[in-house]
Amino acid sequence: MSQESSRPQPRLVQFKLVLLGESAVGKSSIVHRFVKDSFDDYRESTIGAAFLTQTIELNPEITIKFEIWDTAGQERYKSLAPMYYRNSNAAVVVYDITQESSLERAKIWIKELQRQASQDIVIALVGNKADLEEERQVDNEHAKLLAEEEGLLFFEVSAKSGDGIKTIFQNIAEKLPVEAQLNKSQQKLANKVNLQRPSTNNQASCCV
Amino acid sequence: MSNRRPSMVERRSSINEYSTQYEDSRVSSPIPHLAGLEKPLPETIPEEVDVVIAGTGLVESILAAALSWQGSNVLHIDSNDYYGDSTATLTINQLIKWVERVNKGLINNYKNAMLYFPNNTELEYQNLIQSKDYGIDLTPKILFAKSDLLSLLIKSRVYKYLEFLPLSSFHFFENDNFEKMNNSKKNIFINQSISLINKRSLMKFIKFSINWENSLEIWNDYKKKSIKEFLQDKFKLELNQINELIFAIGLCNNDTISTPEALTRIKRYLISFDVYGNFPVMYSKYGGAGEISQGFCRSAAVAGTTYKLNTKILNYDPISKIAKLSDNSKVKINEKLIISSTQSTSFLSSSTSQTTTASYEIQRLTVIVKKSCSEWFENNESSAIVVFPTNSLKSGNKFAVQAIIMGENTEITSSNTTVWYLSTIETGDQGRADLESALESMEKSILRESKNFEEPEILSQSIKFGDDVNNNFKSGEKLQYLLKFYYIQSTSLPHSGVVNTSQYRRKNSTTSTTFNDDVLFSSLPSSEISYDGIITSVKLLYELISGSDDDFFDVDFEDEDEQDDNNLSGFNNDSSINDQINSKSINDDDNNEDDEVIDSEAVEFADDMEL
């Protein structure tokens, strides 16, 4: 306790991160590994809201909080709502290194992000299932080159073993515009109505 | 009740296993696993579902979410490539296509759609139609702070996808003048234009109206009489106060509305005040009903609903119960097929023409103006309501014209521009004349107001909202319009039916007619300016599908990050929304029991509303 009070509290900055990629590439496993540091058979949902949150310490002053949105299956028939992309600060586009076609699909998602999301969104291209080296279909260098051409971060990871997972989010966090977001979220909060918090429960305080 | 389907708990035994296996005993609610999170989704459309819903309008979207959280297997489709159907929020480009389709007769129950781009250069026009800044609501609505939809947004956690902004400016137009409304006790007493004796009468009425249902002796003789008569006879109010109560506070369409109905509407405003702050209504950022529809669709998807835009039903065979979809897939429907009026396809046209009689008309005129209109907004707000009571316009309007003004902070329009949504229930040429006349009055007013703004001495604390049009307005300045958009919508939902639930139920049951018992038709939105009536419609359909609305959204979500959220936004500050910037609270990332209590209060409030 004494230690905590002696050093300044880090500032918490929230960012919205969206997941994209073909189904079965392991989008959710990656997030699960990041949020719970486990690879369970049971993927716990953030019940009802469908986004998970996890914080990461950028430096002693700044803690980044990711609000991670999963597609909830709406991507399957190209039916992702504009709401999904709106105000997203980062995107993790996942493919499966053992499935060539999943990289092709990832390219389409990257195009979609460039069209729908804001220009300064930080995008990471992530090849999952790096533990299945013997089944590899997508060449590491090939995907890396693609990411470089598009100006994306690139990682190969294994959600199963956990290798590389934290690095994705750490690297994204380092690229995010922290100060700008702090200013923006304060402005936003200033006028927003907080529905969790009625100001009174007085039914008619204006006139009684 | 006898034909009730098994509940979700019974249907999904795996969830119960999950609960007991899982270490944390707090997880006990019967929540289906997150779609796409727990296992790969099937590659093709489900061959067999409980319910197919065509159309992603607000009613259908809430229905999809309610059914899938109940445990039904739902396929939700829309023939459009966007969410929202008749309650969509559209970009200008989408609006152009929508107008073209209406005028080709491709969208049922809409007609006479017109879209103008006055005074735009080619470049401006190109920027406008390519821009993502604009989001025009086909059915603009406001949300009362105490209402069933708001309670459901909280209970379903759909509010987490949305941002709401407060709206407290209600203006009403009389004698060629905009009057700013006396929306609080304080204002009534400050207002010097009201005599003391009138203040007393007004306060007496307001006290009565909060609890009017229990004072039958006062209004018993006026059950079938108009609210105007009632207010004149029983409370001796002056005409301008009566108009203010009926048209601004009650948001009624005319003063012949029955006393009980008008009292319900007046009370709705009064009890919504101060629930979340010093304002009675809110609206969602980035678009109204279109945005809320998307939120409920996402909730439905989380609960397992399959989504397919750009898809329509080509055929349905009531014997095999198989529907053929435009993507060449087939689906067997175990229970019901719900079709929005706009999505009806040719195979149904002969029967729908008999069953859905859209006999009520709404005319809408929506414009984007190059002006911030901040003169009309309260501090820190970005929207306002303007109402034109019966007979207040040059056109001699028999019905009110209602307008919602949305400024740039609503993020539905570009900077320094404003969207004005005008609507009336007047029909034919008169309806259009009323809308044009109201637009003209608003244009004059805002030009006059913004001129006054440069001469601060004219502005006072007074309630007057502008000077006399005829005397002082000589400016040659013209208001610039980026866009004018007009159309007529018809619906089977009555104009006045939205507040009185029992009345609504009865009328609606005759209009939501069944087709072979398997097919239900949902109606287009009513003329009601608020979201009132939407949940009633949804529950009615829900009941027709599942036998009872007992378990409508009967879910108990447990959010693990609730405490974090509270720490970000639930500060210990009663003056609420404007004071929520407090870095100390943002830093406070500990679990905070106080915040938990606050949250449970909010949810209790939701339960109050008899969801």
Automatic annotation (TrEMBL), chain A:
Keyword field contains Nucleotide-binding: yes
Chief location: membrane
SMART domains: RAB (SM00175), RAN (SM00176), RAS (SM00173), RHO (SM00174)
Alphabetical list of PROSITE patterns matching this protein: ARF (PS51417), RAB (PS51419), RAS (PS51421), RHO (PS51420)
Cellular component aspect of the GO annotation: endosome; plasma membrane
GO biological process: protein transport; vesicle organization; vesicle-mediated transport
Database matches in InterPro entries: P-loop_NTPase (IPR027417), Small_GTP-bd (IPR005225), Small_GTPase (IPR001806)
Protein name in UniProt: Uncharacterized protein
From TrEMBL, chain B:
Protein family: Belongs to the Rab GDI family.
Natural source organism: Wickerhamomyces mucosus
GO BP of this protein: small GTPase-mediated signal transduction; vesicle-mediated transport
Entry GO CC: cytosol; nucleus; Rab-protein geranylgeranyltransferase complex
Regions of compositional bias (Low complexity) in chain numbering: 572-585
Alphabetized InterPro entries for the sequence: FAD/NAD-bd_sf, GDP_dissociation_inhibitor, Mrs6
Region (Disordered): 1-22, 560-596
Function as written in the Swiss-Prot or TrEMBL entry: Substrate-binding subunit (component A) of the Rab geranylgeranyltransferase (GGTase) complex. Binds unprenylated Rab proteins and presents the substrate peptide to the catalytic component B. The component A is thought to be regenerated by transferring its prenylated Rab back to the donor membrane.
Pfam family, one: GDI
MF terms in GO: GDP-dissociation inhibitor activity
Name of the molecule in the record: Rab proteins geranylgeranyltransferase component A
